[in-house]
Write a structure and sequence with these properties.
Elements lengths: L4 E7 L7 H14 L4 E7 L11 H4 L3 E2 L5 E2 L2 H9 L8 E3 H14 L9 H20 L3 E6 L9 H14 L3 E8 L2 E2 L4 E2 L2 H12 L6 E6 L5 H11 L6 E5 L7 H7 L2 H8 L11 H12 L3 E8 L8 H13 L3 E8 L8 H4 L5 E4 L8 H13 L4 E4 L1 H13 L7 E2 L9 E5 L14 E9 L4 H6 L3 E8 L1 E3 L4 H7 L1 E6 L6 E6 L5 E4 L14 H12 L1
Parallel strand pairs: 1-6, 1-7, 2-5, 2-6, 7-10, 10-11, 12-13, 12-14, 14-15, 15-23, 16-17
Antiparallel strand pairs: 3-4, 8-9, 17-20, 18-19, 18-21, 21-22, 22-23
Length: 532
């Protein structure tokens, strides 16, 4: 294709309607037609990135291969499309303003007064078109966070207005709204959608396609009414009803010709409808899996989105093992030696979750000890792996006061410590090992069996490391360091070979599990949990 086409996805009425899932579904359908697609998320908050945000504020922090801390929607993009995103796929207002202010300080604007229009909007437009210009994608889908009408979103909407004007048929806007059902009246109400579209029109944007989120089926007459009041083609009013799984959404959108309508509107040939064979196979296996595998998530954030990628990776692995993943949150703050047996009763395996800070850490030690002594399949991720190492030092190596330097600055047995070169850095965002790093596997290990290769690359997000001074003692006592970073000699993976499945990874394998390519470690872990 000669020119990149730009699709903007905006939301109205309420947040959390699933713009990320709709964006991912559009991307999947266009990709299935042979187009080269990428998706980016523009977030209106002023943080430079979500790296310093509490998971309760914004769900999990996703990490790209190039080490950018990003919005969790990038996880959906990667899982649906099987692509790798980068720093350029997630922009915040903070980054836009910082870039403009840095240019102003350098004198790039030659003494001009810096204003929202044109300087901020030009910077937004530059970022919108950056991926298309650089990598010549056929389609760049841009999801705008927040809700139309928010004061923070206005510069983004103004930029979309300008781009739609400049790009003509090469740009279109998909607006996602909500159609509530009033039980007392027994009616679905379109007024919030009408108001939302009016709000969009008031800033100069006419949506080309409307996607209506709803819990109930929408009648033809209701869609006609919406089309009439919102100046949208009747065929371009799409229903997005609640589905049993987010992975059914692309098929639902395809059934309503969403991808065909997009191609028609940007002047491209529609051609044959893709069969989406592998995607349908995944869904069939998922829907036919009646038996459950019960996995306990031992962590401190009682929130669906806090461990989003882990939940999805478990779900992928369970599906390909022909099981349904039943995931149980187990609050590590409440876990003690006295109640652990009761709390983990009925679990086929546990994941000791990642995180930062002291809160809930003792419960993770308790869970690690229980799994180790009862041969319960256990998977420690990031801080979870560090908890496995600390618990082992305390209860096997005999260092009762062993700890991480993160939890206890003065611990005499710092089996987890901060790297020398990180000690002088004070900026919260700058002290971490972030993004993809190489790892070499010991061929005599369960981890190697899972991966089937010696050299792997996985994504990191942590500040503290396994202390190599203790490595020989660990190995001698039965906890083996089976994955090593070849450059820094840092330990990436520990496992206890004698147990059914007891593995900890410094990295986050969940970030690279996709619908059509489940992660090998999660596959192996779920298999062990089923065999239990």
């Amino acid at each position: 294709m000669a020119e990149t086409k730009y699709i903007f996805v905006t939301g109205g009425v309420a947040s959390s309607l699933g713009k990320g899932i709709i964006s991912s579904s559009i991307g999947k359908l266009l990709q299935a037609r042979g187009y080269n697609v990428t998706i980016q998320k523009f977030d209106p908050y002023i943080n430079i990135d979500p790296g310093t945000l509490n998971p309760y504020e914004h769900g999990e922090c996703y990490v790209t291969v190039d080490g950018h801390e990003a919005d969790l929607d990038l996880g959906h993009y990667e899982r649906f499309l099987g692509i790798q995103t980068t720093k350029a796929n997630n922009i915040t207002t903070g980054r836009i303003y910082k870039s403009v202010i840095d240019k102003e300080r350098r004198g790039d604007y030659l003494g001009k007064t810096i204003q929202i229009i044109p300087h901020i909007t030009d910077e937004i437009k530059r970022n919108v078109k950056l991926l298309g210009n650089k990598y010549k994608f056929d389609f760049v889908i841009t999801e705008i966070g927040g809700t139309v009408g928010d004061i923070e979103s206005l510069p983004y909407l103004e930029s979309i207005r300008q781009l739609k004007w400049e790009l003509g048929r090469n740009a279109l806007c998909v607006h996602l709204t909500y159609v509530p059902y009033l039980a007392a009246a027994g009616e679905l109400k379109t007024k919030p959608t009408q108001h939302s579209v009016k709000e969009l029109q008031s800033v100069g944007i006419q949506p080309d396609i409307l996607v209506l989120r709803t819990e109930h089926e929408l009648s033809t007459s209701l869609k006609k009414k919406v089309a009439l009041f919102c100046n949208v083609d009747e065929s371009a009013v799409i229903e997005s009803r609640d589905m049993p799984s987010i992975y059914e959404v692309p098929l639902r959108m395809q059934a309503q010709r969403l991808d065909s309508i997009i191609l028609e509107k940007v002047g491209l040939p529609v051609g044959e409808t893709p069969t989406l064979g592998p995607w349908k196979d995944f869904l069939n296996r998922r829907n036919n899996a009646t038996e459950a595998v019960h996995i306990g998530l031992v962590g401190k954030y009682d929130l669906q989105d806090a461990y989003k990628s882990i939940r999805e990776a478990l779900s992928h692995a369970a599906t390909y093992n022909d099981r349904r993943a039943d995931i149980h949150f187990i609050n590590s703050e409440k876990l003690t030696d006295e109640n652990v047996a009761e709390a983990l009763k009925g679990m086929d395996g546990i994941i000791i979750c990642p995180g930062f800070g002291q809160r809930g850490i003792e419960g993770k030690f308790v869970a690690a000890k229980y799994a180790r002594t009862h041969n319960l399949p256990a998977f420690g991720i990031c801080l979870g792996m560090q908890c496995m190492a600390i618990e082992f030092a305390r209860n096997v190596l005999g260092y009762a006061d062993a700890n991480s330097r993160e939890m206890d600055e003065k611990t005499p047995h710092n089996v987890i410590d901060i790297m020398e070169e990180q000690k002088s850095i004070t900026n919260m965002g700058g002290t971490m090992r972030l993004g993809a790093y190489e790892c070499v596997l010991d061929q005599n290990s369960k981890t190697f069996e899972a991966y089937g290769q010696v050299h792997i690359q996985e994504r990191h997000r942590h500040r503290y490391e396994f202390n190599n001074a203790y490595k020989a003692e660990y190995e001698k006592a039965g906890m083996r360091c089976v994955g090593i970073n070849p450059e820094s000699d840092l330990v990436e993976i520990v496992e206890i070979t004698g147990l059914k499945w007891y593995i900890g990874t410094q990295f986050h394998p969940e970030y690279s599990s996709t619908v059509l390519k489940p992660h090998p470690l999660f596959m192996s872990f779920v298999k062990a949990a089923i065999e239990k």
